[in-house]
Amino acid sequence: MTLSSRFLRDALAEGTPLRERFAERVPMGRPGEPAAVVAFLAGPDAGYLNGVHIPVDVA
Question: With the CA atoms of 9, 10, 11 and 13 taken in that order, what torsion angle do they form, in degrees rounded to the nearest 10?
Fold first, then answer.
């Protein structure tokens, strides 16, 4: 079995056991949205960030 994007997307779909286990371990109880981080960093609100590491994991 290969860990393709489709496999991971299907494994972490709403209502799957793996998604429930994942949500229990994440403080917000849901996966993040990388596009939201990109939009923030491209906007004026991120103008004062300097030398910060923002991990964005994409499944």
Answer: 80
Residues 54 and 28: their CA atoms lie apart, in Å, by 16
For residue 58, name the pLDDT band (cuts at 50, 70, 90).
Answer: low
The predicted model scores a pTM of 0.43
Side-chain-side CA neighbours of 57 within 13 Å: the count stands at 6
Burial of 24 (0-12, 13-18, 19+ CB in 10 A): exposed
8 A C-beta contact, residue 33 and residue 42: no
Supply 13's token pair: 């779909």
